[in-house]
Amino acid sequence: MIITSCVIQKDMKRLAGARSICLDAYGTDLNGKKYDLEIQREDKGADPYRARYHSSVMDIENLDAGQEFKDLPETYTIFITEKDFYGKGEPLYIVERMNLTTGKYFDDGEHILYVNGEYRGDSALGKLMHDFNCTDAKDMNFALMAERTRYLKENPKGVDEMCKSMEEMRNEADLTARKNIAFNLINIGKLSFEEIAKCSELSLEEVKTLAEQKEA
Question: Percent of the chain scored above 90 by pLDDT?
């Protein structure tokens, strides 16, 4: 599997009124398969219902009007959890749908994986989890990750790049929250667009756009 493209903090399109979502890392491989990689420090961030929602949003993103359902790409939702989410000591937990009556896989192209961030075996995955939790580049197993860590922590350009990325993430989270507030006020229907704009600190045009999405 070779990833040909990857977008960090990917905003996905959504149906009007649905909860917005931003993927930690969204990638595509040579065969057109789609990957959502999420880093979760707390168990609540890796709730199975959240995995289900992330997977469904990738489906919405990748099927346009007029396309056949069979055109949906194979998708992988991958949660790397700080702790062993299922507590069984396994490096990887693979979740697949099954037809319980026939005992066979449903084979719908949807895959959900939980990676145990506590695992420290001799396998490539164990070494990768070590590097994920390592703060010193010289102690890492994989040269590429060590190189990137040095760049972000020791190179002035890398430090500046990381600071800008963090600022963009904070701004994006704030904008999403303000849009959600505006959308809820629009649904309530008690305030004018001007009042909603003032409450949410959005522009009047942004509020009107949200209202149009609601009507659509």
Answer: 48
